[in-house]
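3.2 Worked example (two chains)
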Amino acid sequence: MMTHRHLRGWLSALLIGLLLTISTVGAVAADPSGLDKLKKLGEQLGKVVPKDIAALIMPAEAEEVAAGRQVAASLLAVAPPINDPGLQRYVNLIGRWVASHSERPDLPWHFGVIDSPDLNAFAVPGGYILITRGLYETLSEPSELAGVLAHEIAHVVERHHLRAALSAKLIAEGSLQIGKVLAPGEEEVARRLVGAGATLMSRKLDQGVEFEADQVGVVLAARAGFDPFGLPAVLTRLEAFSSSDNRVSLLFRTHPAPAARLRQLDAVMGDKLAIYAQTGAPTPLYGR
């Protein structure tokens, strides 16, 4: 699980990226006072952001679960769960078993299949995981289901939603402070530059988050005794779908391409996947 040290390091990298983006204002405008303005902006952000770090990074678990419950309820209002108690019990059995091998086994984990033809799955803070009927129907064995659920479990365990919220908070605060530091004529230029830089950073962050969830998910599935090739098998199957297929359009918009995810998994794990396929194999890749 991401430690407080890791989160602070990630926050620092994001802050540096934001400040570097803002620093281009001085270069573009050829303003001799650009460095002074950048320094002042950095000082102001440094005063504002740390005050909220503790609350944003480590909210009480009860608050996380309560917020997740509201989001899950909104999703279920749009796509209700399939009326098949046996199927729902089975998915919960697999999901909770995998989650019990994570660093957050005591969350009130809930898993469900929702009635949607799309091929997708969703993780909500607090341990709420939903998989669509469309994706479930493509799965051929328990290890594939375990791999998909483990990927979503990883999002919750690693608090990826929290990191995204923190990014938005920091960027919004940065934009607010710009108006207090720059002259009126420079403000709009700066906001456009920050907006472009924030978009690029968020895209990279989103892509990295999905790659991380793949890696952690494979190891979680192996910890639980499932074949770690389950998730790669699903990604290989998804790769055969056309991007114009409405059933995968949302998935492809919000995730890296399946081929890219497979390449990343291979680059990071390589032949270790075969090792993890052995029951009870150690999982050093997860111990970061």
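3.2.1 Second chain
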Amino acid sequence: MYIHLKVKKLRTILNEKEQLVFTLVGLRRSPTLATLCDWFGISCASGSKIFITWVLFLEKELNFLIMFSSLSEMEGVARPKCYAEIANLRAVIDCTELYIDKPSRPSSQRNTYSHYKSRNTFKVLVSQSPICHFNFVSNAYAGSISDKEIVQKSGFLDSFEEGDIVMADKGFNIQDLLALHGVRLLAPPIMRKDNVSACASTVTRRIASKRVHIERMIRKLKSYQILRKCLPLTFKGYISSIIKVVAALVNLQPRIIKIY
């Protein structure tokens, strides 16, 4: 309610509908703030306030679109064939990283440095349901955090029920965390170069063919240009909100897999 009132009290030449469009253009196309404000004929100070206020507002209002539905709630809902054969599948997870400007403090540089990307980043855990929509998006964490740590700290494990299955890449060494909740991990087996069996290769290929869809979902997420650019550190307090708003907007789009 407070955020909604704040939206109405903004004193600019833009009405509420124009402010919403201003924010959506900023998320989708991500021109510079000066360019965006020039398009709408407002000052950069007003534009910055509009963008931040509406992002925080949309995060609250669109939160219902990112629901971690239980298996019973998804019962009877059509699933893609590739997921229908795994009856207790609850989530397909992966992490994605967002580039940020290099911090000035050495300690912050170390915390945000990602060895995988060789850049300073923020890292986000995302989860896709077996009916192909985002059902969980974590807050943004410093890029140095491991996959296991982000699963543990993000609250992702809080809503699981005994017997659920989580599908992940082999880099997610989270069997022990899931076992505490009675949840099973479905991931490709770890193979050594000198010991590759035909059975392990087949299992890896089958899981990879199902996991590819979470990667497609992440590509849709990053079709919003704001998540592909190097984010300024002034966005630090709003990065989590921005990615959750974008994930909600992606959930409004048609499914990535057609169900016949």
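3.3 Remarks
The first helix runs from residue 2 to 9.
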